[in-house]
Amino acid sequence: MARRRIIAGNWKMNKTPSEAVELCATLKDLVKNDAVDVVYCVPAIDIVPVVQAVKGTNVSVGAENFYIEDKGAFTGEISAPMLKDAGVEYIIIGQSERRDIFGENDILINQKVKKAFASGLKPILCCGESLALRKAGTYKEWIKRQITWDLDGITKDQVMNLVIAYEPIWAIGTGETATADQAEEVCRMIREMIADMYDAEAAEAVRIQYGGSMNAANAAELLSKPDIDGGLIGGASLKPDFGQIVNA
Question: CA dist 180 to 65, 81, 138, 165, 215, Å?
Answer without folding.
Answer: 28, 38, 19, 15, 12
